[in-house]
Q: What sequence folds into this?
């Protein structure tokens, strides 16, 4: 981490290539790479009036998350499992609001981000059903990762993840990426306020939305050994210094009925997981 965004784009493309895969011309990563670089390979200075400024901003989300993943994961050890996932990763529209139906690339991207955070946190993740399995003090914790584009899908997808966790055995957590569900037109935030104030406003908004689904969520995970549902959101935002950057936020919904012997695992998992979040790249210095 800590690279300029143009350098991070080159790193991601090279990491994909190291798995024997090509970033095809016209694919989202190819378009992001070309937007961030001049024809001679040097970095471009992207201004808000640039016709591809939206692509550069979207790279803040996609490239930064994948830079984090490829920094954390040893490709030489895990290439067998990763290759099939990265094949899915490549093909998506350059802007997420352009994918109205299937978007396998960003679906697997959400999974890889959770995997990287679990690895960085020392939670010993492996790619297993339902999506990821972690080991915490010899306790197996199954992780199901979902990505939704509409809040109407929220309870259904959480229910699916909870059923997968029960089938996997042990206990688990359902992660849900709500980026497009919360912001379907993919607006960028120009927030003349501190990170703390922005985060609190986001938290209040999400809490207001989720409260309407709270009872249905609890019902959907009841009796399925789910410790909690954790929501992820990633906003592209201009900060007080007029820098464009990425704000990653989480919202935890603990299960109402948890075996008391498992409560400590949820707290430890949550603390470790959140402590592993990356320092996210800024678009401009």
A:
């Amino acid at each position: 981490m800590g690279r300029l965004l143009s350098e991070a784009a080159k790193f991601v493309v090279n990491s994909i290539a190291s798995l024997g895969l090509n970033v095809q011309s016209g694919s989202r990563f190819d378009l992001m790479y070309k937007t961030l670089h001049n024809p001679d390979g040097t970095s471009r200075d992207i201004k808000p009036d640039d016709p591809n400024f939206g692509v550069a901003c979207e790279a803040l989300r996609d490239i930064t998350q994948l830079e984090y993943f490829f920094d954390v994961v040893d490709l030489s050890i895990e290439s067998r499992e990763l290759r099939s996932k990265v094949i899915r990763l490549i093909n998506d529209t350059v802007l997420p609001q352009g994918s109205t139906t299937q978007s396998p690339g960003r679906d697997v991207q959400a999974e890889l981000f959770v995997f990287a955070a679990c690895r960085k946190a020392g939670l010993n993740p492996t790619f297993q059903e339902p999506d990821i399995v972690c080991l915490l003090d010899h306790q197996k914790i199954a992780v199901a990762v979902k990505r939704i584009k509409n809040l109407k899908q929220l309870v259904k997808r959480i229910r699916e993840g909870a059923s997968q966790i029960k089938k996997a055995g042990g206990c688990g957590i359902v992660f849900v990426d709500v980026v497009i569900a919360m912001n379907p037109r993919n607006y960028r935030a120009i927030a003349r306020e501190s990170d703390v104030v922005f985060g609190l406003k986001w938290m209040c908004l999400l809490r207001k939305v989720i409260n309407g689904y709270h009872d249905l969520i609890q019902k959907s995970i009841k009796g399925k050994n789910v410790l909690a549902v954790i929501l992820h959101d990633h906003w592209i935002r201009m900060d007080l210094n007029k820098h464009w950057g990425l704000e990653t936020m989480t919202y935890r919904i603990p299960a109402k009925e948890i075996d008391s012997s498992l409560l400590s695992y949820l707290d430890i998992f949550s603390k470790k997981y959140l402590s592993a979040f990356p320092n996210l790249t800024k678009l401009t210095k």
Observations:
- The longest helix spans residues 53-72.
- The radius of gyration is 19 Å.
- The first strand starts at residue 132 and ends at 136.
- Residues 280-285 have pLDDT under 50 and may be disordered.
